[in-house]
Amino acid sequence: MVLWGDKLIDMKNIIEDKEFKITKAVYKGFPTDQWMVKVLRTWDDGEGYKGSDWRDVGVFDTKEECESWVQKQTLIKVEV
Prior knowledge:
Layout: E1 2-4, E2 7-9, E3 14-27, E4 30-44, E5 50-60, H1 63-71, E6 77-79
Antiparallel strand pairs: 1-2, 3-4, 3-6, 4-5
């Protein structure tokens, strides 16, 4: 429960990861020799504020290392 003005509301902050993707890493607009794992994260507070964005979750030297890491991961869904 959260006090919002003079109302007490029950906010359900839900964060959910939808998918992983592997891309070439970029630093300050320039491509590098490394690879990056990103996750599509969505959020919804139950009161109208919601959205999604790609988040960087790991940087590796090879694409194979990225693929191996992704295979060991689980997409999350949490209420905070």
